[in-house]
Amino acid sequence: MSVIIDGKELAKKIRGNLKIECKELKSKGIKSKLAVIMVGKDPASKVYVRNKSRACEDVGIEYEEHLLDDKTTQKQLIDLIKQLNEDKTVNGILLQSPIPSNLDISEAFRTIIPEKDVDGFNPVNVGKLVLNQDTFVSCTPYGIMKMFEEYNIDLTGKNVVILGRSNIVGKPLIHCCLNRNATVTTCHSKTQNIEQITSKADVLISAIGKAHFVTEDIVKEGAVIIDVGINRLDNGEITGDVDFENVKEKASYITPVPGGVGPMTIAMLMNNVIKATKRQNGMID
Ligand code: GUN
Fold first, then answer.
1. Which of 97, 208, 228 to mutate to test the pocket of ligand 1 (most atoms within 8 A of CB)?
2. Ligand 1 centroid to 60 CA: how many Å?
3. What's the rounded Cα separation, in Å, for the pair 116 and 37?
4. Radius of gyration, CA atoms only, the chain
5. Arithmetic mean of pLDDT over the chain
6. DSSP helix, strand, coil percent of the chain (3-state; round to 5)
7. Which long-range contacts (CB under 8 A, 24 or more apart) does 195-204 make?
8. Is the pLDDT of residue 1 over 90?
9. Is 119 annotated as catalytic?
10. Is 96 a catalytic residue?
């Protein structure tokens, strides 16, 4: 039997602490604001953006939304980011991905100044993570590290296997785990004999977006299982990458979907916005 890692509860605790910090900032006359840009009408993004706006409201962070239609040009997008970079009332900027494929998201991410890059996607912040320097760590990997801390899961010397190599989750996770002294292996669509690798994982983190890909026969007895997947089944049900019911019998710790990694991502975004605000006001380095 495994311990179910309760991301929802931990996220609530983190947001509760941030609420207090936000109040303290306000008492010093300092407001905190997140600006979110969404281009096009991706239905999943709409849900994510709504959840982010609700979280801001809960914590006490001001929220400003820029909804651009799918005919937006690269220049319009870059000009908006530059305007938000200059805007002294905006502390954090988030460009929701995906954006229409005719636009260059890499240029957009590197245009967000590192000081306001609360998603940690600017190459300067990515580089700092690689060098194990203080930075804005992208929110999903950061949320997973917080879960490990809360549940006293020490990665030192552990075999961590990551499924997926996206810029948003898989790649930053490699460095988060390496910075905690893990031995890290990344698997992706071209990896051969994945099961042989996953079955040796002390910690298995799946971020590939394939429902029930991780079955009990490919995990090690007593492994820690982290499920980043959010997959919608034909019947409308949301499920992760892990066959939760069967894998939980073999795991030592496991995250559910929903209620695992998802709420932590948003809590860490709120954390990064408050950190950006404090930095911009000279309260921390
Ligand atoms: N799309 C899916 N996840 C994320 C995220 O964490 N940040 C942004 N900006 N876009 C996303």
1. 97
2. 21
3. 13
4. 19
5. 97
6. 45, 15, 40
7. 197/161, 198/161, 198/163, 200/159, 200/161, 201/159, 201/160, 201/161, 202/158, 202/159, 202/160, 203/153, 203/155, 203/158, 203/159, 203/160, 203/161, 203/177, 204/160, 204/161, 204/163
8. no
9. yes
10. yes
What is the per-residue pLDDT across 32-49, written as a single tens digit (0 to 9) for each?
999 999 999 999 999 999
**168 in ligand 1 pocket by Cβ < 6 Å?**
yes
Residue type at 81 in one-letter notation: I
State the DSSP string of 48-66. Answer: HHHHHHHHHHHHT-EEEEE
The residues, any chain, with a CB within 8 Å of residue 61's CB and separated by 6 or more, are 22, 32, 33, 34, 270, 273, 274
User: What band does 285 get if pLDDT is binned at 50, 70 and 90?
Assistant: confident
**Ligand 1 pocket: which of 168, 231, 261, 269 to mutate (most atoms within 8 A of CB):** 168
